[in-house]
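SAMPLE LOG
Freezer: B-3
Tube label: C17
Construct: single chain, 407 aa
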Amino acid sequence: MTALDPDFVRSNFPAFSEPSLEGQALFENAGGSYPCRFVTERLERFYRERKVQPHGPFEASRIAGEEMDEARSRLAAMLGVETDELSFGPSTTQNVYVLAQAFREWLTPGDAIVVTDQDHEANSGAWRKLASSGIEVREWRLDPATGHLDTEALEPLLEGAKLLAFPHCSNVVGEINDVGAITAMAHKAGAVVCVDGVSYAPHGFPDIGALGADIYLFSAYKTYGPHQGIMVIRRALGEALPNQAHGFNGGTLYKRFTPAGPDHAQVAASAGMADYVDALHASLGGPHVEPRVRSRVVHDAMRARETQLLRPLLGYLEGRNDLRLLGPVEPERRAPTVAVYSERPGEELAAALAPHGINAGGGDFYAVRPLRAMGIDPAHGVLRMSFTHYTTEHEIEGLIRALDHVL
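STRUCTURE (predicted):
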């Protein structure tokens, strides 16, 4: 097989056999995807058999620790980084907050950092607060008409900057930024890079090693897993930044930026995301290859599937003169996170779609800065229709019919 089989994909998600969800199409995946069965099975087993302090000498404790270690090592291998460069935290927002405190100690008053107004607040707000410690905060601004971030506008902002924080893609604009090229620009200028991958990773786990980012963050609950924030910090930067954890944990890279104890069960269950990637790779019929390559193959298959599903929806939206589509109309350039502005408030449109079995979202989605930059009142908001590779053609057709009725 060269393409994902939708029936096989959906067979790995308990939600699609749940009677209470029958006839409901989820188009708010950017807010949180359904978990795959590998994750729910591991989570249930951990709570039933291994919910004890891990890494101890007795059997249940030893196995609990091994399962947590397995999650870290397998995910790191998929992402192309070393095992101890990956850590877990309660959310991406909190992970960035902890990082910002480390940078507050590391930077000197007068140093400059660069943020964007295309970001979700998680990778913007905490960095901007460094201004209260004398850090110069520069803003890489999007194009108000298109939402695009132009690299020509970035170059002068990088002069003398110590950090660039930007999204792999915005959770309302949807355009995929060229992380590799932007990271190379920043490194050439002497800045380290923090990439918010929350809105990209659900559509295929990235090869972080190849992208070159110093920090890459995403949320497991949007990548078919439990409610955890996953953070990669490459060794050189992680060892240079001040320890934010207990003093005795400062010598362990993956513990340095997680001040609180981890959620043992959810960390262990995160290995289920790697199980799922492996199952998809096996379904594609490819040869046995290393985890990083398997993940790339599955990434490309997910993107191909989503591009196919995006095309009719974007064509329909582009053809309407009563909606403003945010971001590119070409499906290859964007993630399937599709926001539109209408004269009717976003939350009102989402509520009108619900009786049709379309579960979408409306509001500002914590993307207050990009909406304002594009001339949209966050209080009015947008309608956001976000899906993944497990969405079907039938569900896309149902969404379009429902939009026709509602609009």
